[in-house]
Amino acid sequence: xxxxxxxxxxxxxxxxxxxxxxxxxxxxxxxxxxxxxxxxxxxxxxxxxxxxxxxxxxxxxxxxxxxxxxxxxxxxxxxxxxxxxxxxxxxxxxxxxxxxxxxxxxxxxxxxxxxxxxxxxxxxxxxxxxxxxxxxxxxxxxxxxxx
Length: 147
Known about the structure:
Helix content is 32%, strand content 20%. The protein has helices spanning 15-22, 63-84, 105-121, and strands spanning 8-11, 25-28, 32-38, 49-55, 89-95.
C-alpha cells in the first residue's frame, strides 16, 4: 500500500473530469469551494494518483485577479494534498469572489485541511437527484393509452 507522502499528484485538464467532480461531493470553505470524487476502479488513471483541478470564473474579476486566485489555490494544494489528500480521488478547487485572493494564506491552508477532513468523513452519497443510478432497476416505457 502506498503512503500518502508518496502519492503522485497530477493536474486535471479535461472538461469531463471537471464535470464528474462537480456532480460528486462538495464542501464549502470561506476561501473556496472543494469538489471531490473517488474514481472508479475501471478508469484508466492509476489508483495511487491524486488529481487536482482549479477553476476561477470571471466573477472573481479580470484576468490578473483570476490568475492570482489560481496561483494561491495551486500553492495550498501543493502544501496540503500530499498530507491530507487520498490516492484515487479527484479534487477541484473553485475560487470565490472577494475571498480566494484576499484571504490570509494561513487561513486558506486551514480551510483546505478542514474541507478535506469533512469530505473524507462524510458517508458516500446515496443518490443524486440530477443523475439516476445506472445500476438501478430498468423501467418499462409508459404505455400509450390513446386509441
